[in-house]
Amino acid sequence: MPDSHDLTITRLIGAPREAVWRAYTDHLAEWWCPKPWSVELIAQDMRAGGRAAMIMRGPNGEEMPQEGVYLEVIPHERIVFTDAFTYGWHAQGPFMIGIMEFSDEAGGTRYTATARHWSAEAKAQHEAMGFTDGWGKVAEQLEEVAKRIA
Prior knowledge:
Elements: E1 6-13, H1 17-26, E2 38-44, E3 51-57, E4 63-74, E5 78-82, E6 85-86, E7 90-91, E8 96-105, E9 108-117, H2 120-128, H3 131-149
Antiparallel strand pairs: 1-9, 2-3, 3-4, 4-5, 5-8, 6-7, 8-9
Helix pairs in contact: 1-3
């Protein structure tokens, strides 16, 4: 399948993969969205079929509920989730599949985050929302947390 609807960022994080993994799995609310936004985790059942739910909150009272499921979790290597389903495999209007990959590189961790969309329109919408800057800032925040707990 061609990746024509993918948006991807990659960063070399100056922390060991174990610390980056722990930052992702144990400290998600600290870095998941660009500040001054914040995250309230509702569920983070990191296994295939497990529920992923949160509410992202903006500085002016905005709320963006996120509901989905994990499709694949390979510890220290890969996390895949989607908003195409809610817990229990109930279909909902999909926006994307998120693919987060972690690998050792140059004494640190190569973090690659991909948003795979169902359509060119959804991809363009995500780009217009500020994908590159937003997900880039989130990667910086992930690195800050990983370095702190390393």
